[in-house]
């Protein structure tokens, strides 16, 4: 009986240690978004370097990224059209999570210029056209 009580106290203490405040969750979500954005920017810069000799691609790629940023921001406004206070204390976390999701999607979409396409793909466009 005594060992059961000790075990229950240990489990209860462990669960309490895992609890987070909303502020902590907001901060964590914000950090995850910063990391996703950093990853996107790193891959973007790698693509610019790899394709530097292909000036037409670079011009178009930069324009596509600029427009994606506008789309991302518009999607965020569509998702949360009201002011931040309308969504409560969870809003910073929700916003950061949504931005992380959109940023990760964009990262995967542009990664193709670094990783290439599957073997046998015939519609390669500018992928691999580094000059």
UniProtKB/TrEMBL annotation:
Signal peptide stretch: 1-19
Gene3D superfamilies per UniProt: 1.20.1270.180
Pfam families according to UniProt: LprI
Keywords, alphabetical: Signal
InterPro entries reported in the protein's UniProt record: LprI-like_N
Ranges of residues in domain Lysozyme inhibitor LprI-like N-terminal: 18-108
Entry protein name: Uncharacterized conserved protein YecT, DUF1311 family
